[in-house]
Amino acid sequence: MAKHVLLTREESKNKPWSTKLMEAGFTVSEVPMIETKAIRAEILVHAYDWIIFTSANTVHYYFQMGGHLPKSIKIAVIGEKTADELKYHGYSADFQPTLYTTDVFIVEWLNLGMEPQRVLIPKSSMARSEIAKCFSEQGHDVTENIIYETGLPEHACESLQKATSKQSIDVAIFASPSAWNNFVDCYQEDISKLTIASIGPVTTDVIRKSGFSVLYEPENYTMEQICQQLIEGEL
Q1: Are residues 55 and 92 located together in one domain of the fold?
Q2: To 5 degrees, how large is the angle CA 174–CA 180–CA 186?
Q3: Each residue's pLDDT tens digit, 152-177
Q4: In whole angstroms, how far apart are CA 224 and each of 46, 61, 135, 191, 205?
Q5: Do 218 and 122 sit in the same domain of this protein?
Q6: How many CB atoms lie within 10 A of CB 122?
Q7: 22 and 72: one domain?
Q8: How much of the chain, in percent, has pLDDT values that exceed 70?
């Protein structure tokens, strides 16, 4: 019997990877463990030198609420999908780190050696403030604006039970701490029997602090790489 893989990202972000994994030979269930909703925020973007987008969601919701980017502002992004979403809206990034991690982003952006900058960071209600803290400590004027919130989809727990009723989950993929925490609250079987894949170190750290191990974490934190790891390691 084919191994059963669980995808837990938002519904719109699961489909291409579900197809890829099924074509490789896995059975796949898509059960979103998070959903996001916009929060209206007034942002005076002209007051800043830089805007930093840390995820595709921040780009999506920034423009959904009518945001724009003047030519005077520089744009920094973390992540391939974030850059793609920015291009979809007609913009390109002035700065991207060599690896798609917060730590590398902080070091490489600070290594640009700029005079104190006014920096805007749109974010989710659950996002950490690591970038803002580090930049502020180096003399930059940083403002964070919450533009969307993350929660548990209404029928997520019931959908998860349905997905496991015919075949137990063998491998579960998580792309955020929120998805993991919601999964733990909903899952009724033995988590220790799962093979867990995490898209990056922040999520991995939360999983490990919960007492569970992570077998797969890609070097460059993309779903493309994590799917390839599963294909090579589980088939």
Answers
A1: yes
A2: 120
A3: 999 999 999 999 998 999 999 999 99
A4: 36, 23, 31, 24, 21
A5: no
A6: 26
A7: no
A8: 100
**Three-state SS at 29:** strand
Q: How far apart are CA 137 and CA 119, in angstroms?
A: 13
Q: Residue 192 sits in which domain range?
A: 4-34+152-234
DSSP state of 45: G
126, 177: one domain: no
Note whether 44 and 68 are within 8 A (CB): no
Looking at the chain, the number of H-run helices and the number of E-run strands are 9, 9
87 and 112 co-located in one domain: yes
**Which CATH number goes with the domain that contains 221?**
3.40.50.10090
Rounded Cα distance, 84 and 87, in Å: 5
Q: Quick one: 67 and 80 in the same domain? A: yes
Is the same domain home to 156 and 126?
Answer: no
Q: What is the DSSP letter of 171?
A: E
Question: Where are the alpha helices (H) located in 138-213, listed in sequence order?
Answer: 156-165, 177-186, 201-209
pLDDT digits (tens, 9 = 90+) for 120-140: 999 999 888 999 999 999 999
Looking up tokens 């750290």 gives 205
Cβ pair 33, 179 in contact under 8 A:
yes
* Paired tokens of 140: 């930059």
Tell me, what DSSP letter sits at residue 151?
E
Q: Which of 152, 144, 109, 105 is nearest to 127 (CA)?
A: 144
Same domain, residue pair 124 and 49: yes
